Amino acid sequence: MALLILGLVIFLGVHSLRALAGPWRTRQRERLGALRWKVLIAVASLAGFVLLVWGFGLARAAPVQLWSPPPWTRHVTGLLMLPAFILLVAAYLPGTHIKAAIGHPMTAAVKTWALAHLLANGTLADVVLFGSFLAWSVVTFSAARRIDRAAGTRYPAQGAARDIAAVVLGALAWAWFAHYGHLWLIGVNPIA
């Protein structure tokens, strides 16, 4: 569990800098230079990610069951993952009305993913992993929206075609991941 927690602290800490420590982040980036800063952040992110994946794997090998979620929660999780995938695509597809309305669809996708997985999983490792990501995404989303309002930041939409593309690509990614990707990557078949 210690590796999982250390990985979460590093990974989520690195991903909190812009929203929660913006002025410090800006000073460090100026001091180190943009390239060195990006390399440092990438290395720290990768190290945190490796530690959390490794730690989660170890914790899954000796699970501490806190509760047994009812079977129907798997279906709710599956349904909640559809908007999570659409939000994820919208984060990388500029000019969607989704991004214009939400501002930070990636963080909203993480929030949806974490909540969905908390519903269907009841081990201590699940609560630590998904609960940490849920708490992080709630705080970060709120901070990012506050920063946007203070700076007057807007995310202009460029037409319905981009939203249609986000929905279609998100739905296709969701279907592929539900049928193949989750089992291949995580080792759990979510639709079995």
SSE inventory with pairings:
Blueprint: H1 2-14, H2 17-20, H3 22-32, H4 34-61, H5 72-92, H6 97-102, H7 105-120, H8 124-151, H9 160-186
Report the C-alpha radius of gyration, rounded: 18 Å
Strand segment count: 0
Helix content: over 70%
Sheet with the most strands, sense and barrel status: none
Shape: globular
Number of helical runs?
A: 9
The chain-level mean pLDDT equals: 94
> What's the structural domain tally?
2
Which oligomerization state do the chains in this entry correspond to? single chain
Structural class: mainly alpha
Q: What is the terminal separation in angstroms?
A: 28 Å
Q: Helix and strand succession?
A: HHHHHHHHH
Give an overview in words.
The protein has 192 residues and is mainly α. The protein has 9 helices and no strands. The model has no long low-confidence stretch (mean pLDDT 94). The chain has 2 domains: 62 residues; 128 residues, no CATH class.
Which labels suit this protein?
9 helices, 2 domains, single chain, 192 residues
Summarize, please:
By secondary structure, the chain is an all-alpha fold. It contains nine helices and no strands.
